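During the reporting period the student researcher (J.K.) took over the structure-prediction task from the postdoctoral fellow and processed the backlog of single-chain submissions. One of the processed entries is reproduced below for the supervisory committee.
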Amino acid sequence: MSTRMTWADAAKPLRERNFAWYFASRFVNTLGNMMASIALTFAVLDITDSAAALGQVLAAHTIPMIVLLLWGGVISDRFPREIVIQISNVASAITQGLIAFLVITGSAELWMLIALSVAHGAVSAISMPAMASVLPQLVARAQLQPANALMSLTRNGLTVLGPTLGALLVVTVGAGWALAIDAATWLIAALLLIPVKIPRADKSEGHKSTVAELREGWSFFIGTTWLWAVVLGFGFLNMIHNGALLVLGPVVAEDTIGRQCWGYVLSAEALGLLAMAVVLLRVPLKRPLFWGMIAVAFASVPMVVLGVDPHLLALVAAAFVAGAGLEVFSMGWNLAMQENIDERMLSRAYSYDALGSFVAMPIGQLAWGPLGAAFGNSRVLVISGVAYAAICLLVLTSRSVRDLPRRAADPVLSETSSHIGSTHDHS
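J.K. obtained the following structure tokens:
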């Protein structure tokens, strides 16, 4: 890390028209999403009173999202990303609106919610690569870090606030109306994207087939060492995180510090994410993957503390540090992707990234419970934490990861900030 940015520098992206409208759209969209998760949970439980049924609805959203992610990357590289996001927002408004209508009218059945969740998951698969890759078209390269930090600050802040608002809506007006409000936020988010105008990239070479574009994306992915090394590492890291903290964590916490205190631990992680996002508004991040992988290794600490001697204060401190480390990695990863990958390939790169990162999560969710039962939860948690840190260090053995630098800002772009988002140097 080096020279600090001023607060004026940190807020500079908001003075750019395209980014400001996109930021407003994502703010509304993220608020709705954070409220909807808890509203859908209670809507399903009101209908079925079954944890298994809730799992089916959640899986119905996740599975098509994973299956269609690569196609979503092709779509987002082929068509204007702001239009892809806008259409996806409208489609999400329709699916969520239908779920809300069924719940409010009392006509919802489990199969209906599963079918609509499948549709929503498919839409999410299309929009995710576009949202991940559109930022370099909205701001100059010199402003990518503050722009990413602003997006993280909003997301992390709403992670703390959104579920509370969602729960309040569920209690006061019911889960159906909470879902209706979520549907409205999707529609508002789509409307806020109308002023975003991004000049089109040169498509003179013509479109290739979807299969050809997928192959081109795969060739780029396996030919870029830092990219596949980090994605491969995170396939294992996310598996461990989901199994150790999300499956075994609550079990151990219930027997030691209690449910309410486990909530404090999760909140501490969210606050760590939020605090580091504020720091990264001011402190430039150099060698993004080097610092990112070192920082994310601290996410192993809560696992070890849970396994060795779970005390509330120690866990809260460990979770806060882990959250801060996760935010440093998130920033480093976005900068690495956005500054080093051609805009025309970026959505496909993000789709391969997401697929590799998500695909092993169900293994962690399914395997860590039986492992804990067989070998003891505490032992499995400690081993998980050690393995997590070791994988982070193993990824850093790649010189491509350690030495990846920040790309210098294009001097033309930095001098003509009133026109940013319109042209970028592709390499």
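The committee noted the following: The longest helix spans residues 17-48.
J.K. will present the remaining backlog at the next meeting.
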